[in-house]
Amino acid sequence: MSNMDEALRWLNQGEPDLGAAIVLMNKEFHESACFHAQQASEKALKSLLFLKGQRSVITHLTRELYREVKKIIPEFKDLARASMELDKHYIPPRYPDAFPSRFTL
């Protein structure tokens, strides 16, 4: 499979996550919307890395993917805060015990 094919595969896989994030946000299901936004972002960043020649991408954290993308495309520097924010919402929306009880979202 070519890098372009792999990039398109990841981008297409992320489209439903983006759609779900928008629908959930509009319904005010914020935790689930954040989870799907993180998933869409992760898949879009992986798509870009494959498009730029990367052969394998093994992480689910958008901040790590962002660091890799920034090495290739320095203009992506403005996404640092957003990528870190999305990572905060990757696990907690799925599991009620993700944080000790004294923490809340």
Structure summary:
By secondary structure, the chain is an all-alpha fold. Helices cover 63% and strands 0% of the residues.
Structure notes:
There is one protein chain. It is built from four helices and no strands. The termini are far apart. By secondary structure, the chain is mostly helical. The radius of gyration is 15 Å and the shape is globular.
Structural class estimated from helices and strands: mainly alpha
CATH class: Mainly Alpha
pLDDT < 50 stretches: none
State the fourth-level CATH superfamily. Answer: Nucleotidyltransferases  domain 2
What is the number of independent domains? 1
- The helix/strand order is HHHH
Shape: globular
CATH architecture: Up-down Bundle
Mean pLDDT: 87
State the CATH topology.
Four Helix Bundle (Hemerythrin (Met), subunit A)
Beta fraction? under 5%
Radius of gyration: 15 Å
The profile of the biggest β sheet is: none
Strands, total number: 0
Q: Assign a percent range to the helix content.
A: 55-70%
